[in-house]
Queue: 2 jobs
Job 1
Amino acid sequence: MRGTVGVRKETKDNTQRRAPLSPANVRRLVSDHGLKVVVEPWKNRVFPDATYADAGASISHDLSGCNVILGVKEIYAPHLTPGSAYCFFSHTVKGQDYNMPMLREILDRRVTLFDYELVRDDRGKRLVFFGPFAGYAGMIDTLWALGKRLAWEGIPNPFSSVRYATGYDRLERARAALRVIGDEISSKGLPGRLVPFITGFTGYGHVSKSAQELYDLLPSEPVAPCDLASFIARGKFSDRKVYKCEFHKPDLYADTEGGSFNPEKFASRPDLFRGRFADYLPHLTVVVNGIYWEPRFPRLISRDDVRRLFSGAGEGSAGKGGTAPRLRVIGDITCDIGGSVEVTVRETNADNPVFVYDPRTGRVTDGWKGRGPVVMAVDKLPTELPHEASESFGNALERFVPGLARVDFSGPAASLDLPDEFRRALIAHAGELTPEFSYLHDNLLRGGSASKDSRDS
């Protein structure tokens, strides 16, 4: 029914708590735009059903009468209603093999699919995303993992007081906790075994910037990648500071044909470049990875890199009985399985957020105990800060909802009266892939690739 919007419950994972619209968004859509909003009841959602009802929504298990249905994560059969229009993060545009069966169902059921990741303005800037909250939660979880690891190693440290992100009911509580830790570092200093404490950040976007925003609540001082080795050699560092090294593409990749880094050449021929992050890895205590990655790009951290780094370490924590590498934790916010960080061999979630990768055997052990780096690879980080994440996302999405609610989806894709930003995000309609995404036919036939999309979802 045109003029009716559905908000579905999330069925992919029981740790999911986000919503595409907040009660405040619903109130405005109902009162200012005359829309009918139907919310599917769901006990895990950060906003109780009653708050949506108070905002003017109908609470119902039946969304079949909605003109468009809004969700967050992937929707698998039997939860797809034939002929309906859906908006969610589909993780299909790179031909991801694990979601090709879902895409086949979407086509078979003649479902209309919009992907939030593709909602962009004329300049290609993304407009509806969770990215900053992936960075915030990822930074909190990385520091939490660091505190656990160091405590297991027998190193008293201020990070032991960091809670897991879900332990903070609001982001501001986490900020306040990090400020306290920052004051402790400034006044009491860090244990000598951690000095200099250096965290490497990769990525240019919302994910990396928001992670750095929280890190900078500590007494942080920048160090350029090109100065890292000499910085260590000079020894002019402080135990009352943490250091931040931000890596950009020229720092991460070297042209195998010689010459300086050329971004156009890298974009067109990444096979002519090698990764050089391993050169910096021995100097880092923590890595926070937020880069966009595809299989055609060189890896950031390979299994061989980690094996070489830990080759002098003996049994135990970070190398008792041998030379202990500085590296304790890899916070892989990007979470490409076997991708930019090859030792991210599986994704994790809030119920079991970290594992230790053993560089000798390639095996992983849940938790933070054991030989090798701790890897944090939580797949749905923004849901760990669900209140602010949902409010921010809903505020970005809200302006497009009235237009979507009134679209007549009975016609062919080319004739749909869509907002331009959502026309770019239309992947499938009436049993067919749209022309821009027709390349996915090959992936449907052969099963897809293994890379995930960005951590905005």
Job 2
Amino acid sequence: MVSGYALAFGLTLVPSGRIGDALGRRTVFVVGVVLFGLSSLACGLAPSAGLLVLARLVQGAAGGILNPQVSGLIQQLFRGAERGRAFGLLGATIGISTAVGPVVGGVLLDALGADAGWRWIFFVNLPVAAAAVVLAMRWLPAPPQRARGRGIDVDPVGVLLLGAGVLGILLPVVESGRGASTVPWWVGLVGLAFVGAFLAWERRYTGLGREPLVDLSLFGVRGYPSGATVGTIYFGGFTGIFFVLTIHVQQQLHYSPLLAGLTVTPFALGSAVTSALGGRLVSRYGRLLVTTGLVVVLVGVVGVDITVAAADGPGLGWWLVAPLLVAGIGSGLVISPNITLAVDGVPVDRAGTAGGLLQTGQRIGTAMGIALVGAVFYAGAGGAGGLDPSGALKVCAVLVAVALAASAVDLRNRRHTR
């Protein structure tokens, strides 16, 4: 149910970004939202685990369809410092939603019980989807006439090769994040081989004068490769914190789902506050802002590790408020500003594709980070002390440190260029 969503989401990001660039982003966004709402209804009504998994696959694909349109629309509608503020407000919205989601989920489970509560976690998506469709049709710009009448070069071979590559890379790592995997590790190598074949095909397809799924010249745009690298590594680091803490406080400290959700809320709230601020400051400070944010995140993650080791008891949630808030404050200065810098030089007509690639990298980073963190976390499961989060949290800190190093290298290169 969890891995299937992640896989379907990752598979549809780049093709849907490409289609949005060609057909019009409002149209594809609305299709994605409608599909997300219908699949949420199917999830809530699912009479069996098999049908629930199937509905989650559709839901993940719908999420992958609508998400690249958001970054594409921001690039289309805003310029200069305004674009940074728009991405900052998007980050603040995501931060608030991330804080509210686990709490609402916990309230529903506590109020309705385990048998009915999980169904309503899906049903609450329906009014949100309905409102999003109405507001999108009212506020978002209609596709230009040329986009409506223009055919799309779908590059089917490119779609299949990239899909096989992303599936091969993600499948074994998202499975290993459960503590055990039924997918052999060499499937990831097969996925990498498909990615290599995809890159070779895209070069050939471009050479034939066709429109490829991914224009590889994107990676020659100043700031895009470094932004993608920092984002991929960072998502592998900070998302592991939630994975470790929510399992630890429920299984070891016997927190309810509501309390577990509240435990990680300070991170989301800190990120929501500083995302809007980061959007205003990124045009002035650029990569320095992202690098500073990563330093703050690293301090917070180390603080989380120290706190868990020193105060691992029923009151741990209260002790974690400060370090998680610090980490969240730093994160708000990283995610949205990094996206702003990455896509700053990307042409608007390729904005959806560029956004889809960035999010695909983030998904792969998240899956690999959780797989690595999960492997360390579950390594001590057989011991008398149960699951020990300390080693896993140190892995999170190391990944954030690697992202910090990559951002610092980019900052140095930018200064050298100037």
